[in-house]
Structures are given as C-alpha cells and as structure tokens.
Amino acid sequence: MMLLYQSAEEAFFYIVQTHPCEWNRTVMGILNLKKEYSAEVIDKSCRRALCYGISNYSQIKNICKSGAYNQPSKFNAEVYHAFN
Length: 84
Prior knowledge:
It is a single chain. This protein is mainly α and 84 residues long. The protein is built from five helices and no strands. It has helices at 6-18, 23-32, 39-51, 57-66, 77-82. The longest helix is centred in the first third of the chain and has 13 residues, at 6-18. It is globular. The N and C termini lie far apart (25 Å). The model has no long low-confidence stretch (mean pLDDT 86).
C-alpha cells in the first residue's frame, strides 16, 4: 500500500534540504493531512508547492484547503532539479 505519491516524496526531500534542522515537524504535519485529505490531493498540493519553491507546512495545507492544487501552475525547473 502506497501512503503518498511521488510528488509528496519529492517535496519531503526538498523540505529536508531547505530546513535541515526543522524538517521533521513539517513532514509530520503533511503526513497528518491524510486525516482530512486524500493522498491524491496531498500529492497534487505538494507538486504545486514544488513548482513555486514552497517548503512550508501551512502553505501546503492552504493549497489543500483552497483547492489550488487543481489550478494550472508553472513548472520551476530550477527547484525541481535542485534535488534530482
């Protein structure tokens, strides 16, 4: 059983790189979003966050809450390739 999808995993890696001392609280917060949102919603929200270089739990939560994950977003290749 897959808990979350690839974009969420990539977001976690990005969060660890951008917040090396405080990443655990952010990642745990995102994982706890599963209580309110599906894995697909969280994954799409993480994908959108990655596109804009967002690594903050509250902003990712707001993307889930507002439904912004369904809106088109520009792809930020610089952020994406920073951790690949």
